[in-house]
Amino acid sequence: MTKETNKIDFIEFPARNVLEIAKSKRFYGEVFDWSFTNWGEDYIDTNSSGLGSGFNADAEHRPASPLVVVYVANLESAVTKVVAAGGQITRDIFSFPGGRRFHFKDPIGNELAVWSDQ
Q1: According to DSSP H, which parts of 1-118 are helical?
Q2: pLDDT tens digit string along 5-63?
Q3: Structural domains in the chain, sorted by start
Q4: Cα–Cα distances in angstroms (integers) from residue 17 to residues 41, 43, 56, 96, 106, in the given order
Q5: Residue 29, Cβ neighbours under 10 Å: how many?
Q6: Which residues pair with residue 115 across a beta bridge?
Q7: Among 69, 71, 43, which Cα is nearest to 57's?
Q8: In Å, what is the CA distance from 108 to each residue of 83, 86, 87, 88, 97?
Q9: Alpha-carbon span 6 to 110, nearest angstrom
Q10: DSSP structure class, residue 48
């Protein structure tokens, strides 16, 4: 599947620990019949929720609140554009299974992330 650049591609939900990952998996599986892919103990992706989404309990990388994630083809270019437009980088580019991403706040304080598989 080809990703559409500059489009919302994913939503990531925080979890405080691996117990909350398990609770989320059970809850959303029972309520909406979602299935999941485990990426270690502290991260799961939904496979059947519509828009891609995941639950993150990694203390170093989990968001403080639900995090909208935009896909781009060129991550470094996106960083430059965010800063030039008045955004603030809150988490520098880092790698994760499947790609790399960074986080930023827009001029009114909303935090989003940008990722690329390139």
Answers
A1: 18-32, 75-84
A2: 999 999 999 999 999 999 999 999 998 999 999 999 999 999 999 899 999 999 988 99
A3: 7-116 (3.10.180.10)
A4: 9, 10, 8, 18, 28
A5: 14
A6: 71, 101
A7: 43
A8: 14, 10, 9, 10, 30
A9: 17
A10: S
For 1-118, where are the E strands, in sequence order? 7-14, 36-38, 43-46, 52-56, 67-71, 88-96, 99-105, 111-116
Token pair of 113 as six digits:
């992330």
d(CA 75, CA 104): 12
Q: Which two tokens stand for residue 110?
A: 């909303």
Task: Give the model confidence (pLDDT) of 52-107 as tens digits.
Answer: 999 999 998 899 999 999 999 999 999 999 999 999 999 999 999 899 999 999 99
**This prediction's pTM:** 0.84
